[in-house]
């Protein structure tokens, strides 16, 4: 069994960051979609790619260099993902990335990875991510399915409402109280039951402190 260290979970903000993907098969395509969704600037290096990756290249969503990985390719990137069918490539990419201080994931050699990828489910702004510290990817995938199915539409509304309130109200104890109410209090419970009118009334009452001080949106 592997050592008992747990992987450290983060959610990376990749907007505008340079990401290198080595490989262009099915696994690489999944990685590409995820980093593009996060707004990264993606370069793919692979002699062959899936039709979808080729199409994204033609549409200018990513840059495809149709060749094998070469020394030096890592330079200039913030993050590197390798997913090829050649077992000699991952270790080379990982060593070069390490030497340059660039974070690297190789799809099937956990001992070479600076970070591992969890199984991810999305509902609006909500992300469910399951990691098993590299021990059981298939179980991570199964749990992700089970857990994501539990995120209901009202959770998504509540997340969006909370985001709106955070954007429009100044920080402070009053705002915190209102946000907690949306998350776990009466407003949340009403929204969960589909009682949107009643929730709206509670919300308007909760917004009073800002109405009177003239700070409301
Ligand atoms: C979650 C997911 C995310 C993703 O890839 O995006 C992911 N693997 C997924 C599926 C999956 N992978 C494999 C199987 C076959 C069953 C099995 O072997 O168990 C299945 C199941 C399937 O395909 O259904 C094979 C496999 N995977 C790794 C090894 C090497 C090793 O363990 O040594 C081998 C053996 C290769 C071989 O024997 O040849 C390694 C890793 N796989 C990871 C992530 C990282 C740890 C995640 C964690 O901590 O849980 C890590 C360490 C590297 C990394 O970060 O990529 C994605 C589910 C996506 C989804 O459905 O949501
Ligand atoms: N982590 C996971 O979840 C997981 C699951 C299954 C498989 N894998 C692993 O991911 C890897 C990729 O799997 P796949 O199904 O996408 O493979 P694939 O055969 O569909 O694609 C391989 C890709 O690698 C490219 N390639 C080969 N040599 C290259 C080189 N020198 N430089 C750049 N690109 C090169 C090929 O052109 C092709 O695009 C495999 O090692 C597989 O074991 C990982």
UniProtKB/TrEMBL annotation:
Residue ranges of domain Siroheme synthase central in the record: 123-148
- Which keywords does UniProt give here? NAD, Oxidoreductase, Porphyrin biosynthesis
Classification via Pfam families: NAD_binding_7, Sirohm_synth_M
Question: EC no.?
Answer: 1.3.1.76
Tell me one GO biological process term: siroheme biosynthetic process
First-tier enzyme category under EC: oxidoreductase
Q: Which reaction does it catalyse?
A: precorrin-2 + NAD(+) = sirohydrochlorin + NADH + 2 H(+)
Key word Nucleotide-binding present in the record? no
Say which domain of life the source belongs to: Bacteria
Q: Which InterPro entries match?
A: Met8-like, NAD(P)-bd_dom_sf, Sirohaem_synthase_central, Sirohaem_synthase_N
Q: Is Ribonucleoprotein tagged as a keyword?
A: no
SUPFAM superfamilies in the cross-refs: NAD(P)-binding Rossmann-fold domains (SSF51735), Siroheme synthase middle domains-like (SSF75615)
Listed GO molecular functions?
ferrochelatase activity; precorrin-2 dehydrogenase activity
> Which pathway, per its entry?
Porphyrin-containing compound metabolism; siroheme biosynthesis; sirohydrochlorin from precorrin-2: step 1/1
In its UniProt entry, what is this protein called?
precorrin-2 dehydrogenase
Protein source organism: Pseudomyxococcus hansupus
The organism that produces this protein has a lineage beginning with:
Bacteria, Pseudomonadati, Myxococcota, Myxococcia, Myxococcales
């Amino acid at each position: 069994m592997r050592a008992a260290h747990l992987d450290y979970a983060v959610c990376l903000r990749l907007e505008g960051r340079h990401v290198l993907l080595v490989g262009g098969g099915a696994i690489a395509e999944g990685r590409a979609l995820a980093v593009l969704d996060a707004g990264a600037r993606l370069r793919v290096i692979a002699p062959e790619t899936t039709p979808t990756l080729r199409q994204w290249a033609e549409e200018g969503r990513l840059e495809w260099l149709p060749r094998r990985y070469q020394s030096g390719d890592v330079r200039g990137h913030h993050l590197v993902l390798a997913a090829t069918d050649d077992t000699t490539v991952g270790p080379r990419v990982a060593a070069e990335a390490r030497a340059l201080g660039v974070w690297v994931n190789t799809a099937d050699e956990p001992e070479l990875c600076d970070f591992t990828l969890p199984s991810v489910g999305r509902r609006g702004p909500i992300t469910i991510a399951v990691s098993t510290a590299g021990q059981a990817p298939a179980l991570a995938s199964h749990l992700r399915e089970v857990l994501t199915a539990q995120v209901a539409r009202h959770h998504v509304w509540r997340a969006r409402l909370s985001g709106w309130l955070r954007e429009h109200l100044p920080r402070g104890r009053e705002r915190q109280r209102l946000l907690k109410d949306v998350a776990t209090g009466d407003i949340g419970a009403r929204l969960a039951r589909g009682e949107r009118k009643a929730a709206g009334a509670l919300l308007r009452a909760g917004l009073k402190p800002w109405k009177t001080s003239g700070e409301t949106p």
